[in-house]
């Protein structure tokens, strides 16, 4: 103890005064504590004796006031510890042969002993027998003590001890029901809850059930055999059959009836089936020993079904289920029919739980008593559906505490769960038999036949709920649309499900069903069935099936009528109850109005659906409704998980949609939120430390707003929002001046070229980098690039900014400071000035390297661009003709247009594309397409458009070309010269070509009354296809014009030559006035449909990203894949569309998505899919590699696609 300090030694010395004082104080404290504990013990002991005395004298009048299963906490009890001899003596005293007083005293002692000691005693076997006998004692107080012992043991002992007690209780109950000496009422007599025998029996059943519910939470920690013993004793008890004997003609109630009384929805079975560990054992026992229990449950439901159907059809007197005893707070008597009803509810819950699990479904088919046929899973589901149609409303006596127990609601809940689980739905629901059963009531109502339904409206609402969930899944949707068969372009007979539903929905909207007219629930019913259609027409394939019914017109008419009715709701007055002043009918109309708007809005989920929505004239109201829900953070629908992202992306791909988004306040809210994140930060966050400096160019807090802007800014949207508008360029900006539109974002974040703009930004570098990143994405769309360059001279702004970021050295050469902004500007300048595919240009990195030279790319502040950004010297195209191409050309020149010449030509072309695709370029390509188009245009049957001949005007000048066209021409000429395709006078020739094309196409345009900027004259953007043909013809003006004029007669020209159908007389009036091109509402529509069928992972990735595939496809196709593919691949794209048909445009896009699949999935995970698709070229993509794949797609889908593509024109009457 040398290490102990001197002060401690002195204190610990017993002779020291401090030590004696400490010990004296400690003793006093301990005496007080011990005395308090003794007093507390005596008080608890006296209180316990007093409670026992009260229990002896207290008489229970009803089982409702008993809490036998709610055992007292062991912490509040005093135990009497006993040795083995005392326990043995106690067991002997509990022998049934002993006097009553001795047994009662022994039971009292037993209740005060620790349960674990009793269960481990040597005489436990005899004690268990004595306890079972004690349960039969006629004295209720004595049997209650036994139950309390059971309850306390269940709550305080481990499973290895309580299982024996449970099994003994279950075995006792089993023998009780089998014995003829015990009182068990017959079903027809009902159950009197005030009967003492019934009270005691229900107490035991309830105790058993409470243990059943609790034991799953801890039996996984015990050996499986313990769990199996508990389960087997339970199933053995429930399998007891009380058959009538020769003395008693009435059948007695079985244990399952009493268990149903205390656990109506079979919660015990739900908990047992929840985990795989216990579910396996339960199902194994049911399969091997107790399958009769399943059969009994099914038979119970069948009997109930037959009784209900007889009531509904009027062959039997009505059930008394709905006659309730509302005046009684506690129900003291259950009739026989109510007991049957309760048992049916319990059976439905049990059977429904079996269907949910794969091993549970394997128990079927089940052989039923007195029935030859086996009951399969499908038969069971159809029985459920029949019960929905004819089961009565739930007895009000059963809805006092826990809601609705009607079989229809319970079955609908089960079927909902099955719908939400793919494997369950496939096995149980996705069959024509089940669909026909669901549609049977609808068929009757459509045909004007009387369908005996217990409650028509509720039955139909339940059916609509199930159908909507089936339609929400691809397999279920396919079953409704095509009846489980493949879609056909000619045979629609298999499409009965969808046809029946939409016909019924239209009749509901028109209120053309007499038996439902005037119903208070009609608005709810309309909403339910429109939602089923909504699930179908919000997909491309579903819309194609429903299109002939023009459901959008019926919905918009119903919405107009409903909105007029909802306007009659009185305005709330201050001081009055707003809710009570509005009638339920008015509220239902208001809800229906919102439902109809939502259903109209969901037409915008597909490109063709968006065209239909615009034709209704309600697009602004629908988008406003969407925005109101968006601001309230309300869920889109019960089956939609990813919000309104895809719909916003679809709507923003069109000019009218962009205007609707602007008018609704959506764009203003988006821009305001973005500005708050970039410049202001959140107002509700208490700032204790400075905000961290962002590391990424686009901070994570801004990523969502950045992607939302990219989704919004397609070329049609950008032109409507900023076309022909100047940026504000104010001399000063207030710090409180918040941007509200896209033009403000360009002014404040992108074109930051004045000190006033710089000083108005709190986070100048971060905000400007955000704007430059946005500009970079926008400029990937060549049409947007030309618009921004023509209106705002963005390249000049970027070059000037680079100059200001440079230092001039002694030899007058600039040295550029490398920072985040200069790197971004350099990347954008190269992107917008160097055209080309992935192998034709090199874009500088936007990431600095480690080491001495962090940025090896040359920065420039004036044109031309450094040569290092051009991908090498491109060889002059080979002017020699390939042998196979020569054969094909000679066949074309010498053809007599015999039957099959087109097919022979296509076959030879395909052979060349597969074997040596490199020869399909240059002079070979120009001569091939010239000859092929010439022969097609000379045959009237191959000409889709019949136009009057156009003679080129030699006096056309280039003065009328727009600035956008002049810029486009410069870019084309620069690109063509780099490809060695054009000569010195090419620019003037291309101007002549574009002017002649514009004049030629203007003859086929019709005046359109529209407020859209894009429809106020000719085509507002650049003609990339005509420029492509000019390059293919190597700058030959005459060949180009001749080809385009002949080409304009063919169907394919409508889809790959975008200006061809601008405001065209060949389009229906509503389509022409919409400003939506067939490339969007036809080609892009089918791209989405095929993408979902062929590449479901890619389609899901787009859906999760909130980005529509149609928007990026529209961008690719409008600019003929310029900047995304090398020139050779662009030539192949144009060639296959001309030779093989316009549908190859669709297969081309699907092939691109197939090529990008892994990258798309990766960037979806990185949450930058939109940026990747717009910024990145199609690396390593070759048309010839996917040629066979495109041919396989054509063999499957061509009949459907070509048929619809040919229907874009106004049909002759």
From TrEMBL:
Which residue intervals define the domain BROMI N-terminal in the entry?
14-50
Which InterPro entries does this one have?
A: BROMI_C, BROMI_M, BROMI_N, PHAF1/BROMI, Rab-GAP_TBC_sf
Q: Where is the BROMI C-terminal Rab TBC-like domain?
A: 778-1208
Q: Which Gene3D superfamilies match?
A: Ypt/Rab-GAP domain of gyp1p, domain 3 (1.10.472.80)
Q: Which Pfam families does this one have?
A: BROMI, BROMI_C, BROMI_N
Q: Give the superkingdom in one word.
A: Eukaryota
Span of domain BROMI middle region: 85-760
Q: What is this protein called?
A: Protein broad-minded-like
Q: Name the lineage.
A: Eukaryota, Metazoa, Chordata, Craniata, Vertebrata
């Amino acid at each position: 103890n040398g290490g102990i300090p001197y002060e401690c030694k002195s204190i610990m010395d017993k002779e020291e005064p401090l030590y004696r004082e400490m010990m004296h104080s400690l003793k006093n404290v301990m005496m007080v504590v011990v005395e308090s504990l003794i007093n507390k013990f005596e008080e608890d002991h006296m209180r316990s004796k007093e409670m026992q005395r009260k229990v002896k004298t207290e008489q229970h009048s009803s089982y409702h006031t008993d809490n036998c299963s709610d055992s007292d906490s062991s912490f509040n009890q005093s135990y009497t510890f006993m040795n083995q001899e005392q326990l043995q003596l106690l067991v002997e005293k509990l022998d049934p042969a002993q006097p009553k007083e001795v047994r009662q005293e022994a039971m009292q002692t037993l209740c005060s002993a620790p349960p674990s000691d009793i269960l481990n005693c040597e005489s436990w076997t005899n004690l268990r027998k004595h306890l079972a006998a004690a349960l039969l004692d006629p004295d209720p107080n004595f049997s209650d003590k036994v139950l309390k012992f059971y309850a306390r043991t269940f709550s305080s002992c481990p499973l290895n001890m309580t299982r024996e007690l449970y099994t003994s209780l279950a075995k006792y109950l089993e023998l009780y029901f089998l014995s003829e000496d015990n009182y068990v009422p017959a079903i027809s007599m009902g159950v009197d809850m005030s009967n003492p025998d019934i009270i005691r029996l229900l107490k035991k059943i309830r105790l058993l059930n409470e243990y059943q519910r609790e034991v799953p939470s801890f039996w996984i920690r015990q050996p499986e055999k313990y769990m199996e013993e508990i389960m087997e004793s339970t199933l053995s008890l429930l399998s007891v059959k009380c058959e009538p004997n020769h003395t008693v003609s009435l059948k007695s109630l079985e244990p399952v009836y009493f268990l149903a009384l205390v656990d109506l929805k079979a919660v015990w079975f739900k908990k047992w089936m929840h985990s795989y560990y216990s579910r396996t054992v339960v199902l194994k026992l049911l399969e091997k020993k107790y399958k009769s229990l399943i059969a009994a449950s099914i038979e119970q439901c069948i009997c109930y079904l037959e009784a209900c159907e007889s009531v509904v059809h009027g062959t039997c007197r009505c059930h008394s289920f709905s006659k309730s005893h509302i005046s009684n707070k506690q129900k003291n008597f259950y009739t026989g029919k109510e007991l049957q009803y309760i048992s049916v509810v319990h059976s439905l819950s049990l059977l429904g739980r079996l269907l949910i699990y794969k091993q549970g479904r394997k128990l079927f088919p089940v052989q039923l008593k007195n029935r030859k046929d086996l009951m399969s899973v499908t038969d069971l589901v159809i029985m459920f559906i029949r019960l929905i149609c004819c089961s009565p409303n739930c007895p009000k006596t059963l809805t006092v505490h826990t809601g609705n127990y009607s079989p229809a609601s319970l079955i609908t809940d089960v079927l909902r769960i099955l719908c939400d689980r793919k494997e369950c739905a496939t096995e149980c629901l996705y069959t024509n038999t089940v669909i026909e059963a669901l549609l049977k009531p609808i068929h009757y109502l459509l045909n004007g036949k009387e369908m005996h339904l217990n409650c028509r409206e509720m039955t139909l609402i339940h059916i609509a709920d199930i159908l909507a969930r089936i339609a929400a899944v691809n397999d279920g949707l396919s079953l409704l649309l095509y009846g489980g068969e493949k879609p056909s372009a000619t045979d629609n007979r298999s499409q009965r499900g969808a046809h029946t539903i939409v016909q019924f929905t239209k009749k509901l909207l028109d209120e053309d069903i007499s038996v439902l007219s005037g119903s208070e629930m009609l608005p709810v019913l309309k909403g339910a069935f429109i939602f089923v259609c909504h699930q179908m027409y919000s997909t491309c394939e579903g819309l194609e099936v429903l299109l002939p019914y023009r459901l959008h017109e019926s919905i918009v008419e119903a919405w107009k009528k409903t909105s007029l009715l909802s306007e009659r709701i009185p305005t709330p007055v201050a001081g009055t109850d707003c809710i009570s002043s509005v009638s339920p009918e008015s509220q239902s109309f208001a809800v229906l109005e919102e439902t109809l708007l939502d259903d109209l809005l969901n037409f915008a989920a597909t490109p063709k659906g968006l065209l239909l929505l615009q034709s209704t004239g309600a697009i602004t109201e629908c988008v406003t409704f969407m925005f109101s829900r968006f601001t309230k953070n309300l869920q889109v629908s019960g089956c939609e998980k990813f919000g309104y992202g895809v719909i916003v992306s679809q709507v923003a791909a069109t000019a009218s949609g962009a205007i609707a988004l602007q008018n609704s306040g959506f764009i203003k809210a988006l821009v305001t939120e973005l500005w708050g994140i970039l410049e202001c930060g959140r107002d509700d966050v208490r700032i204790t430390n400075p905000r961290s400096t962002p590391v990424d160019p686009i901070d994570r807090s801004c990523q969502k707003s950045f992607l939302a802007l990219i989704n919004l800014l397609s070329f049609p949207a950008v032109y409507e929002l900023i076309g022909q508008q100047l940026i504000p360029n104010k001399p000063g900006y207030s710090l409180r001046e918040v941007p509200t539109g896209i033009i403000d974002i360009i002014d404040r974040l992108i074109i930051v070229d004045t000190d006033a703009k710089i000083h108005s930004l709190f986070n100048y570098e971060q905000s400007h980098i955000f704007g430059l990143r946005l500009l970079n994405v926008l400029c990937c769309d060549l049409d947007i690039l030309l618009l921004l360059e023509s209106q705002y001279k963005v390249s000049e702004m970027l070059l000037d900014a680079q100059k200001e970021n440079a230092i001039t050295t002694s030899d007058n050469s600039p040295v550029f400071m490398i920072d985040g902004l200069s790197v971004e500007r350099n990347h954008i300048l190269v992107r917008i000035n160097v055209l080309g595919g992935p192998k034709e240009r090199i874009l500088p990195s936007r990431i600095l390297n480690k080491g001495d030279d962090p940025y090896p790319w040359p920065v420039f502040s004036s044109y031309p661009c450094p040569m290092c950004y051009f991908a090498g010297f491109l060889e002059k195209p080979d002017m020699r003709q390939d042998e196979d191409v020569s054969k094909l050309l000679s066949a074309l020149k010498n053809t007599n247009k015999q039957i099959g010449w087109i097919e022979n030509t296509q076959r030879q072309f395909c052979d060349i594309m597969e074997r040596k695709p490199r020869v399909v370029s240059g002079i070979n390509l120009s001569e091939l397409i010239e000859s092929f188009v010439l022969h097609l245009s000379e045959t009237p049957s191959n000409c889709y458009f019949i136009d009057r001949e156009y003679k080129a005007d030699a006096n056309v000048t280039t003065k009328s070309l727009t600035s956008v066209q002049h810029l486009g021409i410069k870019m084309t000429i620069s690109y063509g010269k780099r490809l060695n395709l054009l000569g010195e006078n090419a620019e003037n020739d291309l101007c002549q070509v574009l002017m002649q094309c514009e004049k030629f196409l203007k003859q086929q345009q019709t005046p359109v009354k529209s407020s859209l900027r894009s429809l106020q004259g000719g085509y507002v953007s650049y003609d990339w296809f005509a420029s492509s043909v000019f390059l293919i013809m190597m700058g030959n003006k005459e060949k180009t014009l001749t080809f385009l004029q002949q080409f304009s007669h063919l169907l394919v020209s409508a889809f790959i030559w975008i200006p061809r159908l601008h405001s065209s007389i060949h389009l229906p009036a509503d389509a022409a006035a919409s400003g939506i091109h067939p490339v969007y509402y036809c080609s892009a529509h089918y791209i989405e449909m095929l993408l979902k069928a062929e590449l479901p992972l890619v389609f899901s990735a787009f859906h999760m990203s909130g980005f529509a595939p149609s928007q990026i496809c529209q961008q690719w196709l409008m600019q003929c894949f310029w900047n995304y593919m090398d020139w050779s691949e662009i030539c192949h794209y144009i060639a296959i569309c001309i030779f093989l048909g316009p549908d190859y445009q669709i297969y081309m896009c699907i092939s691109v998505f197939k090529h990008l699949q892994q990258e798309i999935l990766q960037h979806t995970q990185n949450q930058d899919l939109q940026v990747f698709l717009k910024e990145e070229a199609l690396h390593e993509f070759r048309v010839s590699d996917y040629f066979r794949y495109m041919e396989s797609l054509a063999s499957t889908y061509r009949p459907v696609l070509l048929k619809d593509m040919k229907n874009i024109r106004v049909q002759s009457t």
